[in-house]
Design brief:
Blueprint: H1 14-26, E1 30-33, E2 43-45, E3 63-68, H2 71-80, E4 84-90, E5 97-102, E6 108-113, E7 132-138, H3 142-159, E8 163-169, H4 175-184, E9 190-198, H5 204-223, E10 227-234, H6 237-242, E11 244-246, E12 249-250, H7 251-279, H8 290-334
Parallel strand pairs: 3-6, 7-8, 7-9, 9-10
Antiparallel strand pairs: 1-2, 4-5, 5-6, 11-12
Length: about 325
């Protein structure tokens, strides 16, 4: 069983060896220690890796090669350590990048790699064509909420949405109720909730924030219609202004895009499940034969007959007693 691989490089000063150890640690290798009695050596391990051995001509220089998914980080680390970078090449067709680093002595480190391939997943597209979208916006703090509404309408227009219904409510507390009303009609693919809450001197802010967040989330879960949370919860008016179209963007715009993406994601997931269900074999229904039904009816009839006979037996002693009393009375009258 393989336990380790050792690569020896002659004529490397101790100072350069220590620098190499620190460099390899910086790029992600784990230092396991030095060999006994040798401070200028190091044992490293990598989380995932492979070893390649190449037979090169005698005139070639000694070199190491590593494959990595973040070559840009290695490039910056090499510059910080003062190593010379040789032959930096970017691949235009992919995000891969390759370059060489002149390390201590005659050691050259070849770096090649790029970001890993994305894993297969189900994503929602930012395409609102053919969608029906509802927007619930509060009138309280209208100076902010109207900016959020304009941002949401702009995003929907860019995404191709034609049908948009805007519902105005007095304040943020009423947003969940109106959003649930729209969702329960089953006429809308998604609901966008827009509002603005500013912290005051009392606990009113905390109470409303919790109820609004809980109500919107509960409406989305129970109705199955995606809800986008575009309610600002800020400490100051300046924070709200920054998030309504200034430095921090427009949260209404972002909420509208999130609603479109989630509506498309729901369609993709439901369509995937329906196709899987369609491939399953229909379940077989086992019907009871007709003679079994007749047998069951006979059993019921026989049980009813037995019950009636038992009732008759229980009633017979009483009847016999009444008849004997009548005979006794009749006999006394005659005598």
């Amino acid at each position: 069983m393989q336990t380790s691989i050792t690569i020896n490089y002659p004529n490397v000063p101790a100072v350069d060896a220590e620098k190499l150890i620190r460099f390899f640690e910086a790029i992600g290798l784990q230092f396991r220690g030095s060999q006994a009695g040798r401070k200028d050596s190091g044992l490293f391990s990598a989380p995932i890796g492979a070893v390649a051995i190449n037979m090169l001509p005698s005139a070639s220089t000694e070199s190491l090669s590593i494959g990595i998914n973040n070559p840009d980080v290695i490039f910056e680390i090499a510059r910080k350590f003062g190593f010379k970078v040789i032959g930096d090449t970017a691949h235009p067709d992919t995000a891969a990048r390759s370059f060489s680093i002149q390390l201590a002595g005659t050691i050259v480190l070849n770096v090649v790699g790029g970001p890993p391939e994305p894993l297969p997943s189900i994503d929602g597209k930012l395409d609102a064509r053919g969608m029906r979208l509802g927007i619930v916006v509060s009138r309280f703090n209208a100076f902010i909420t109207e900016r959020l509404l304009h941002g949401a309408l702009d995003a929907l227009h860019r995404a191709g949405a034609k049908t948009k219904t805007v519902v105005r409510v007095p304040g943020a507390f009423e947003i969940p109720s109106a959003a649930r009303t729209l969702a329960e009609t089953k006429k809308y693919d998604a609901v966008i909730c827009l509002g603005c809450l500013l912290r005051g001197d009392t606990a009113h802010y905390d109470v409303i924030v919790n109820e609004v967040a809980r109500g919107i989330g509960q409406s989305a879960q129970e109705t199955g219609v995606p809800h986008a949370f575009g309610v600002l919860t800020c400490d100051t008016l300046e924070q709200a202004i920054d998030r309504a179209g200034l430095k921090m963007g427009n949260k209404g715009f972002e909420a509208a895009l999130a609603a479109v993406e989630m509506a498309n994601l729901k369609k993709a997931v439901v369509g995937r499940e329906s196709s899987v269900v369609g491939k399953t074999k229909p379940s077989r229904v086992v019907r009871r034969p007709s003679h079994a039904k007749a047998k069951a009816s006979n059993l019921v009839a026989s049980s009813v007959t037995r019950e009636s006979q038992d009732v008759a037996r229980r009633a017979s002693p009483v009847a016999r007693k009444s008849q004997s009393k009548k005979k006794l009375t009749t006999h006394r009258k005659k005598h």
